[in-house]
Amino acid sequence: MKFKKIVSLALAAVMCFAIAASTATVPASAEDTHVLDLNTDSVKLAYIPISTAGATNKLVEIAFKDMLEPYADTITIDYFDPGYDVQTQIQMVNDCVNQGYDALFIECADPVSLTTPVAEAEAAGVACITLNLNCEAVHSLHVRGVDYLAGYTAAEVLAEEFGADSAKNVVIIDCPAAMTSTNLQSVGFFDYMSENTNWTLLEDRNIDNFSQEDANTAMRDILTKYDNIDIVYGVMDDVTSGALQAIEAAGKDDGSIVVYGNIGGPGTLGAIKAGSKALYGLTLSDYYTEMSVAMGLGLYFAMTGQTAATMGLDATPEIGLKVFPITPDNAADMIIISRWPMTGMV
Predict the structure, then answer these.
(1) What is the extent of the structural domain holding 117?
(2) 308 burial class (0-12, 13-18, 19+ CB within 10 angstroms)?
């Protein structure tokens, strides 16, 4: 199988953090920056996802805990739950800035609405590290799985297995409409499909808040509209699981409809492990490594007081981590790599 090459920066980033942590200096022009000693000074961090309801947050917490264990006496991290509400998330970001947090880890619920609060946080000396879901403001760092390549790879895997020249009919269960500019799995999938196959896209359905329930409802509706669906691609675990539930409820989980997902959490990995006939595979994002990289570099920003403003950046630095295709043939080994067994959920 031939996949496009990407540069995986995970281990390099962690090593860079380790080196920077011991040699950090502050530019002379950055008068408002400071240097903290992580072993003796108090540091406050905040994690503000779109919601803590998603299963992936469990692995985020484990990765953060492992990275912060050497600094248990000095570093605290608070977890916030905006409940998928953009305005609540904006208020949480503003409150954390006012309360003197040193760095914020944010999964932006809306790339436009979060622009002003993130820009204001950076200007106030609070580094913002966005996770997977980006915003338009220039900020300290964006860490993500390679979303475009994830979709591209998914289509490539399916084409090689089920035939690029076959007349397949495809449905995409997509991210919320507001996130389409920064969430590119479906774009990658469609690009490969349109450039390399004879498949037809029946529908690309946006799901509010990545809701499993809404994805279930949407898939039920789609099943009533089309009786010729061959492939369903879900851009995130929750929407993939919702689509699977609808397919199972309709009695079409015999393999006649092939489902392929993205990210790889306990629900989808468990389904592959259990031998699901409907869920053929997924592109696994190594969430544990991704969040470890984000935390390592977030500590560097918190320690030095540097932000995009103090560094004079005119664009947000990005780190993209490699994705791995999982099918029934390699599922057992890849589940171990995923670290989900650490949570006890797989």
Answers:
(1) 10-145+287-322
(2) buried
